[in-house]
Write a structure and sequence with these properties.
By secondary structure, the protein is of the alpha+beta class. It is about 20% helix and about 20% strand. It is globular and about 50 Å long. Bound molecules: zinc ion (2 copies).
């Protein structure tokens, strides 16, 4: 997770007036890598759909200082259930459906182990 360079994002948005931009998604000012844990190379987070249907705007970064914006083609692989992979073409490691989010997994484990802490009845 890293801070989104908000000023750069706004500049980019101004140059892409057709972008469907979900303000809520950036309200916290952070981006979270969508690639599988342990990948090499840059981290990546989807920003918004591109002008072409098979393209999207991505934010790529390498540590705090290095980052870039790039329009990338979608990964063309489709899961056997018909879902498209939500990552960009030639991404590292596994496709979107096999990416696990350790933070979300940890929260879910805690919720199951300590439901009362989350305001839920003891028996789920
Ligand atoms: Zn990453
Ligand atoms: Zn993929």
């Amino acid at each position: 997770m890293r801070r989104l360079p908000v000023r750069d994002v706004l500049t980019l948005l101004q140059s892409a007036p057709d972008a469907t931009y979900d303000h809520a998604e950036f309200a916290d000012g952070y981006v979270c890598c969508e690639l599988a844990e342990g990948h090499t190379g840059e981290h990546a987070d989807f920003l918004w759909d591109g002008g072409e249907v098979d393209e999207a705007q991505w934010f790529l970064w390498n540590g705090e200082e290095e980052f870039r914006f790039a329009v990338l083609k979608w990964c063309s692989v489709t899961h056997e259930n018909g879902d498209g992979c939500g990552l960009f073409d030639a991404h590292a490691l596994v496709h979107a459906w096999d990416v696990t989010d350790p933070t979300a997994d940890a929260l879910l484990e805690d919720l199951i182990a300590n439901p009362e802490k989350w305001g839920l009845p003891k028996e789920l």
